[in-house]
Amino acid sequence: MKNYYKFSVAPMLHYTDRHCRFLHRQFTKKTLLYTEMITEDHLIQSKHKVLETYEHPIALQVAGKNPKKLERCAIIAHLQGYDEINLNVGCPSKKIQYAGFGIYLIKNIPLLTNIVKIMVNASPIPVSIKTRIGLDEYDNYYFLKNLIENVSKYGLCQKFIIHARKALSQGISTKENRTIPKLNYNIVYALKKDFPKLTIIINGNIKSIKDSKMHLKYVDGVMIGRSIYNNPSILSQIDSEIIELKKNIIKVLTENMYPYIEKELCTGTPLKHISRHMLGLFHGFHGCKRWKQHIIENSYKKNSNIKVLEKALKFVA
Q1: Residues with catalytic function
Q2: Is the pTM of this model over 0.70?
Q3: How many CB atoms lie within 10 A of CB 242?
Q4: 133 with 282, same domain?
Q5: Which of 17, 101, 106, 113 has its CA 20 to 30 A from that of 315?
Q6: Is position 78 annotated in a ligand binding site?
Q7: Would you say 155 is a known binding-site residue?
Q8: Quick one: residue 192, left, alpha or beta (phi over 0 = left, psi -120 to 50 = alpha)?
């Protein structure tokens, strides 16, 4: 197992865009970063730029159900330099439900297995699966075990990221699906025991490096999502094992963003598209509230530039 499998930042729709990933990479060189989820049609139809090398290791997450289209997605991922392509089999949103993929693919194991086989044969980069522990009535361990067994046989998918909640397709929102179904970490631990040769990554309400180290006693890796987005400095601990990141180091990392931001502004990217990912940089430090407030109030203005961040930094001096 590669070292960067131990820690990863969860793919978060509308959050982990290229600006967010560039910021996260300032804190960590070893963490595996994921793109936002992108549908098969969007990926095929879009003209995506080749990734900059600073993002590596980087994985592309896709969602879909058409084997031929996902085959093309796997080829695109390889040609664009991604280190991994991840198939989302865990998203419970209504749009995904209507499209018939995401979490709903786990009801059709033969189709899912065929998709993975085609993707694996299409590209030399690893294919991984991100899923839940179940869906509605499909929520017992034997169902999940059967899913993993079928999708991994014959040397197909060897890496599974398991969100330790089942999903509910009715009665709750996508947001509520991240908190209401109860967590069951023991099911994920059991998978690792039953499939010791597979790479099993755990996900779901993991908030700190301390939590991560506890889970790593039982599984191969940990994926953290919103806790990192709200407090990116957590990422610094992954590379350095520093328990407390000093404010002046965060300031340096913030200033390291300036050349990237200036370049993006010159191409027409509004400052707010980048600065929104930086609001949590000084989480827990004095002046954090004023840092956020100044950026929120000024980054959306016409012709806003790097001076907005420079002034905001003064509030956390």
Answers
A1: 91
A2: yes
A3: 13
A4: no
A5: 17
A6: no
A7: no
A8: alpha
